[in-house]
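Sequence only, no structure available. Ideas?
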Amino acid sequence: QVQLAESGGGLVQPGDSLRLSCAQSEVIAGFTLEYYAVGWFRQAAGKEREAVSCINRMNGDSYYADSVKGRFTIARDNAKNMIYLDMSGLKSDDTAVYYCAADFSRVCSLESDAYEYWGQGTQVTVSS
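Reply:
I predicted one. Tokens follow.
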């Protein structure tokens, strides 16, 4: 069982930047997040969960939803066992609960069904 914990959400104004973090609360059998494909997803009130970004295990290749390309960046910090989502140029449409998800796979996916482990989410609200 991989337990994930998101942090960094909050209330920001349009155009602001924010960094979300995804931490692994317990390392089991030595498998840190480096060994998992990780994705970020979000769910706005009254809407379905949608993909934001994902990053492959090991090689760090990353992928983004069209709605966030050029504004969001996903990154690994293996030394800290963290996954980050750097968000800039935030818009009101980015308001949602953001979730990180992990799967013991080599290649990440922008499909939520591909992930076995999920965090509890962190709220991001973009409002003036």
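The chain is about 0% helix and 45% strand.
Hope that gets you unstuck.
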